[in-house]
Design brief:
single chain; about 100 residues; alpha+beta
Length: about 100
């Protein structure tokens, strides 16, 4: 689970400063920072935008026999808890689920 709170925010701010002042085109990270600590107040707008991404049409014979449909990838599946694009609240590990 990613760190949260003031320490994570300070670490994220330090990382942003390092990237902005390094002049490097490649940044090597020992760990990926929690995007929520980096974005702060902009987190909800970021999540609302990106939860709409990553879908495709599939399956002429999907499980349940309901016909062809859309597959939506949950880009925030590793963030627990979260609400997906269909307003389903995920309180535990992600698993495939049919229908909205």
């Amino acid at each position: 689970r990613p760190e949260a709170g003031p320490a994570a925010s300070a670490a994220a701010a330090a990382l942003v400063r390092q990237i902005q002042t390094s002049g490097s085109k490649v940044v090597r990270l020992a760990a990926v920072p929690d995007y929520r600590a980096v974005l702060g107040a902009d987190t909800k707008a970021f999540e609302d935008k990106y939860k709409q991404y990553a879908g495709l049409w599939c399956c002429n014979r999907p499980p349940g026999g309901r016909g062809a449909g859309h597959i939506w990838y949950d880009l925030f599946a590793d963030i627990v808890p979260h609400t997906d694009r269909h307003n389903r609240r995920w309180e535990g590990p992600w698993f495939p689920k049919m229908g909205p």
